Amino acid sequence: DAGVTQSPTHLIKTRGQQVTLRCSPKSGHDTVSWYQQALGQGPQFIFQYYEEEERQRGNFPDRFSGHQFPNYSSELNVNALLLGDSALYLCASSPGPGQGGRTGYNEQFFGPGTRLTVL
Amino acid sequence: GQNIDQPTEMTATEGAIVQINCTYQTSGFNGLFWYQQHAGEAPTFLSYNVLDGLEEKGRFSSFLSRSKGYSYLLLKELQMKDSASYLCAADGTGFQKLVFGTGTRLLVSP
Fold it and tell me: Is B40 exposed, middle or buried (CB count within 10 Å of its CB: 0-12, 13-18, 19+)?
């Protein structure tokens, strides 16, 4: 059973460019969350997708947008890249409402991340 | 506002016991998670608490006091491979919108 996968592993961009990161959730999961983790910090919640809609959003500007496809995979797009966008971008999948685990909570499984460097 | 506080760094020796504390303030509360993260890798789930008390899972235990906004992760019989960052995260919405602390970097020495 494949876990959460993300692509690419590493990416180097320059300021002002746009980037798209991809995530495939763990089999059976329909909810995808995206986090940004700067060096030495904890992950920060960007947004979450469920049923192809953005369900929740953190304190990130509109330059950060996303999409979820019918097969539950997801993309994170960042426009007009800034130096401060350099970080590890983590995707996490979890079962949605109605798919709740036997433990009563929905554990998030994280992917390996995409390391984005903006020069 | 929402705030998660945990120590930046801790050191311990192999075979010892270490307790990593976490205090949280969130507008809502639907559980407290602990994750382990090795350098350059993704966080991996360790534990979840939503009710007060201690949850034990092998060498790792986690405690929660909702009234005090406090949790700790207890690691017993430390091994070198336990050197990692330990992230405390609160779910304030019930939909896995996790608010993470900055993480506690644990260094286990021989």
Answer: exposed
Contact criterion met (CB below 8 Å) for B62 and B34? yes
- Residue A75 burial (CB count, 10 A): 17
Q: Are B13 and B26 in contact (CB under 8 A)?
A: no
Residue A118 or residue A98, greater confidence: A118
Higher pLDDT, A22 or A3: A22
Q: pLDDT-based confidence at B55, cuts 50/70/90?
A: very high
Q: Which residues pair with B100 in a beta bridge?
A: B89
Sorting pLDDT into bands at 50, 70 and 90, what band is B1?
low
In a mutational test of the B interface, the residue from A93, A106, A114 whose CB has the highest number of chain B CBs within 10 Å is A106
Residue contact B48–A103, C-beta within 8 A = yes
Extended strands (E) in B6-110: 9-13, 18-25, 32-37, 44-49, 53-57, 60-65, 70-75, 84-91, 98-100, 104-109
Which token pair is B65? Answer: 């006091």
Evaluate whether B56 touches B74 at the Cβ level (below 8 Å).
Answer: no
- Report whether pLDDT(A114) > 80: yes
Q: How far is B43 from chain A (nearest CA, A)?
A: 6
* Contact between chains at B43 and A90 (C-beta distance less than 8 A): yes
Evaluate if residue A49 carries a pLDDT over 60: yes
